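subagent[fold] <- orchestrator: predict structure for attached chain, return tokens only, no commentary.
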Amino acid sequence: MEHDRQDGFLGWAGRHPRWADAVCLLSIVLFAVFLRLVYVAEYTMSPLGVTAVAPDVAAHDAWARQILAGEAAGAPLYPRFLAMLYRRTGGALGAVRDLKLLLDTAALALAWVAVRRLWRRRTACLAGLLWSAYLPLIYYSAELHPEGLAVFLVSLAFFLWSFAAAVAGRSRLALLGGIGLCLGLAAAVQPLLLLFVVGVAALGPWCLPGGATGRERLAAALCLLVPGLLPAFSPLAGVAAGGEFMAAPTPLHNLAYAWSALEIPSGSDLPELQFYTPLMRLPFPRFGWIAPLAVLGAWLRRRDRRAWLWLLLPAVHTLALAFVALAGGRQRLPMLPALLVLAALGLDALIDAWVRRDVAVWRFATVLLLAVFVPIHLLRPPLPRDSAARSLLLAAEASCRLGNFDHAEQAAAKAAELAPDLPGIESLRELCRAGRERRADATPPGDTHREEP
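subagent[fold] -> orchestrator:
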């Protein structure tokens, strides 16, 4: 670990570096937990808080509940993970979202430790603060999307990598095998990460410190590649639910939208949650802020071997996104751990340049930041044509779960007017009819029941 005068505050951190690390990490984790608890509280009180948002999320939800009922055998990894959360929480979506956000906080802590071991405390704290307040990560991690689990597994792989760089021999090979397994499980959850698994196996042996023979590099590559490919081609991988992937119209089209400053909604979910939850409307970091800083950090650290794998992740994931039609901004979520760390490295370099009064670095940084900032903010990903209808259908589903069948049927009728071929409208009407029949059967003779407005 690096220690210098900028790591200390009031001289105490220089004398007690481990305690200083613990205090910094604990403060960032508590801040992250606070923001996530506020968001889940606002989300739960919103009209959409009782329903699974988006069609593919509803598919994961249904699959997990089938696993709990013993009706699904040989399910992939993510529905099994979701079923485990349902079993622990009794199926309460609010509690499941809390647990998923705690998993994201654990990923933050793992990335913090990895950055602290590879660089210094200030860089780790910058990365932790950016991660804790990055609103799209909070939103997508709280929902039932599989990318939240992939982010945790990628962060765990980087955490193990920070230790693999400090050991040698069989211990290093064992850690590399663990890294490959983590990345393989992440690729089983999110198939777009498979290209990163192959890239790590090719580049990873060259990133290790110290001289290594060709045989040692080959052994390291195999330890990364074999455990990385096994889960991705096993029954744990399964098939993406909800039709998330399809043939890309043009690679340049997808490439542009993958780096758009706006969060690309996969329907009506993100605009609706921004309306219902005040936290999502606050000016916390978003992709349009992080991406230019990450490009700056990548350029300034391009010769640093410790940063090569962090540089590799957004590069190969962008290449994968170029050939897959985007279902939403969450498809770029797996590269966020690397982008946030690279952004922290860029900010750290700017702070150093300010202390040294290095005007040349600041001039270069200003030009590069503007060169990235302007294009990504000019790219405007369009909303789906049936976005308003999806919003109404989500509200109808929430009303149906709350027993307000009149409002549910009215919202479903409006959704049918806007998008008659939208899937899910007829099934929702059937649920409302079934709910009315159950209520009528349960009502004692002579008792009248009036639905809540």
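orchestrator: received. Logging for downstream: Residues 294 and 343 are 4 Å apart (CA to CA). Confidence is low (pLDDT under 50) at residues 1-8, 241-248, 448-453.
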